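Might I ask for a little of your time on a matter of protein folding? What I wish to show you is a protein chain and, alongside it, a tokenised description of its three-dimensional fold. I should value your view on which stretches of the chain appear to form regular backbone elements. You will find the record immediately after this paragraph:
***
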Amino acid sequence: QGITDKAGNPVVKHAIEIAQGFWSRGYWYEAAIASLHDVIEDSETITDGQTLARKLEEINFGTLDVNGVKKILIAKGHEPESMGISVQHIVDAVLVLTRSEGTTYFDYIRSIKKSGNKDAIAVKIADLEHHLENGADISDSLIGRYEKAMDILEA
């Protein structure tokens, strides 16, 4: 709460906008990962994967039916209980997307690619695209950095 990005916008706005992009295309799990992708780096209370998993379990995230998610998935021919993606899958992707202190930016980007976690890679690409599309005030060097990161992830 009260945490802002480099442009002064609430960080939660960025995460929600990325999540909405996945949600609108029917990618519920990627939307969940996108909504949480910065939580460990930006939160003072959720500082590791165990805490994130515990918080998600506390709210029954694995069975949560936000805005009729299960009804939508069932209507699209899916069986939510048998889709095979758990809270742990979401936590694992968020951990891949969490940059460790002391890790250089491009080592971090290469670690995402090397992880092979397709959801984490898709969310990071969407994250970079969002920064590029909505960052009118970002420097040319930052634009170049994001474009190079996308090249690495899309290779």
Summary: The two ends are 36 Å apart (CA to CA).
